[in-house]
């Protein structure tokens, strides 16, 4: 008991003698804590992140999300794909889309302090003549009328060395030949971001596991991180992409529309992804048509149509090869099971590139930001129309859509385009994929 009293008296005497010093110390500690809160961002202490993404990119093909941190286009696209001003304050065409004149905003500067003028706007198109009558005006003369051209120049423009007009500036870029391996950015408030690019999703995940990056973005599978306790996983349904089974319409079997429709009815689409896709145009687009044929899962109808096809073609059995990438193999196996249940024998083929010859191809497709899909479905586009689809009505609608200036008329064109294309079924539209980001 005496020892305990002695300790309390000793502590009391200490505080009595040094109370001023202790109070000053506590006060300075509190002040120092709040100063650090404001000084850390200024001196960029701890304000950096290393981000991993999947893909092989050159300087000119970097992801749009990264490019838009660094620079701006003459225009930009609103959330529904509507074209709105960015570096340009206005634009016009006087000949129904063959000549486009853009007027720049006042007071724009590049990240090196130079003034943005028409002479420093650097767009390069092989079939477009560019004129710059004065510092604020840039004129694009196209060979053919093209109503979607204002959306084309929403792509950010740069001076040499990826010098742009955005909030973030390129600090360093590391190349392996022409392939970008790492891109270091610094913002106006001195925050830092390092983007590291890896050839495969598995390699991106490995970089996260080894501590080479702090965050990975746009991955399709969260395994094995769904079992990790000290990570944060964010999920986003990407309506800028869809997953579909593309049919080679020139294949001797897939040339039949009724069979393509039957195969679409046979797929249990709700078991594949959380958000259904029913057309090739994004649900967020001003041109989206929600009233196309949905091809809801109907195994009885699918089996009847397939039996009818086999009977009409005097076939005892029907075998189809379904090709896909390793990333979608689990989805392909489900589709194969659905087709087998409807009377189709299925061979699964895992491939790493877009095939030149196939019967059915399960793939993820990037939806163009403008509803113009001429390159994908028009019969003249031999290298990009992977379904080899030919339909004079669709050709005409695609031609009208890219030449019509009036937005109301254009919308009607693309509503019809979706309705007739989905009816013809050159592809079975399935779902919008979920993308994941994992942060340590």
Write structural notes for this entry.
This protein has helices at 2-43, 64-70, 149-152, 201-209, 257-265, 299-312, 329-341, 374-377, 392-403, 407-424; strands at residues 48-54, 75-77, 83-85, 88-92, 99-104, 128-134, 137-142, 168-176, 179-187, 192-198, 215-219, 232-237, 241-247, 275-276, 319-324, 345-350, 360-366, 427-432, 434-439. It has 440 residues and is α+β, with helices and mostly antiparallel strands. The chain has four domains: 1-43; 48-56 and 170-237, no CATH class; 72-152, Alpha-Beta Complex (Dipeptide-binding Protein, domain 1), CATH 3.90.76; 241-433, Dipeptide-binding Protein, domain 3. The strands form four sheets. A seven-stranded mixed sheet has the order 8-9-10-1-11-19-12. The model has no long low-confidence stretch (mean pLDDT 90).
Layout of helices and strands:
Layout: H1 2-43, E1 48-54, H2 64-70, E2 75-77, E3 83-85, E4 88-92, E5 99-104, E6 128-134, E7 137-142, H3 149-152, E8 168-176, E9 179-187, E10 192-198, H4 201-209, E11 215-219, E12 232-237, E13 241-247, H5 257-265, E14 275-276, H6 299-312, E15 319-324, H7 329-341, E16 345-350, E17 360-366, H8 374-377, H9 392-403, H10 407-424, E18 427-432, E19 434-439
Parallel strand pairs: 1-10, 1-11, 15-16, 15-17
Antiparallel strand pairs: 2-3, 4-5, 5-7, 6-7, 8-9, 9-10, 11-19, 12-19, 13-17, 13-18, 14-18
């Amino acid at each position: 008991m005496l020892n305990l009293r002695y300790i309390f008296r000793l502590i009391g005497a200490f505080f009595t003698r040094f109370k001023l010093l202790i109070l000053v110390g506590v006060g300075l500690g509190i002040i120092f804590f709040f100063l650090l809160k404001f000084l850390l961002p200024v001196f960029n202490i701890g304000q950096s992140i290393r981000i991993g993404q999947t893909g092989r990119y050159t300087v000119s093909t970097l992801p749009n999300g990264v490019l838009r941190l660094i620079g701006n286009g003459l225009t930009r696209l609103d959330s529904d794909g509507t074209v709105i001003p960015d570096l340009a304050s206005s634009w016009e065409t006087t000949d129904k889309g063959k000549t486009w004149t853009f007027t720049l905003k006042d007071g724009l500067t590049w990240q090196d302090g130079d003034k943005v003028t028409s002479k420093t706007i650097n767009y390069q198109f092989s079939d477009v003549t560019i004129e710059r009558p004065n510092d604020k005006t840039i004129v694009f003369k196209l060979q053919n009328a093209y109503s979607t051209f204002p959306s084309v120049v929403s792509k950010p423009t740069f001076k040499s060395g990826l010098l742009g007009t955005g909030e973030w500036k390129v600090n360093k870029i590391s190349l392996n030949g022409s392939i970008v391996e790492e891109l270091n950015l610094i913002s106006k408030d001195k925050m830092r971001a390092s983007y590291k690019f890896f050839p495969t999703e598995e390699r991106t995940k490995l970089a996260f596991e080894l501590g080479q990056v702090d965050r990975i973005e746009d991955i399709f599978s969260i395994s094995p991180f769904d079992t990790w306790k000290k990570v944060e996983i964010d999920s986003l349904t990407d309506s800028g992409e869809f997953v579909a089974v593309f049919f080679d319409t020139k294949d001797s079997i897939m040339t039949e529309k009724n069979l393509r429709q039957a195969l679409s009815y046979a797929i249990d689409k709700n078991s594949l992804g959380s958000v259904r896709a029913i057309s090739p145009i994004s649900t967020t687009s001003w041109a989206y048509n929600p009233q196309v044929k949905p091809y809801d899962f109907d195994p009885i109808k699918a089996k009847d149509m397939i039996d009818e096809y086999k009977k009409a073609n005097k076939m005892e059995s029907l075998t189809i090869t379904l090709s896909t990438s390793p990333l979608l193999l689990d989805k392909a196996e489900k589709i194969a099971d659905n087709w087998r249940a409807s009377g189709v024998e299925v061979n699964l083929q895992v491939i790493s590139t877009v095939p030149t010859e196939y019967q059915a191809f399960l793939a993820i497709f990037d939806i163009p930001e403008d509803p113009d899909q001429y390159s994908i479905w028009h019969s003249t586009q031999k290298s990009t129309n992977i379904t080899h689809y030919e339909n004079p009505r669709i050709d005409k609608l695609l031609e009208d859509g890219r030449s019509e200036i009036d937005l109301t008329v254009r919308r009607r064109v693309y509503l019809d385009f979706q309705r007739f294309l989905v009816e013809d079924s050159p592809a079975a539209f399935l779902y919008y994929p979920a993308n994941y980001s994992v942060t340590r």
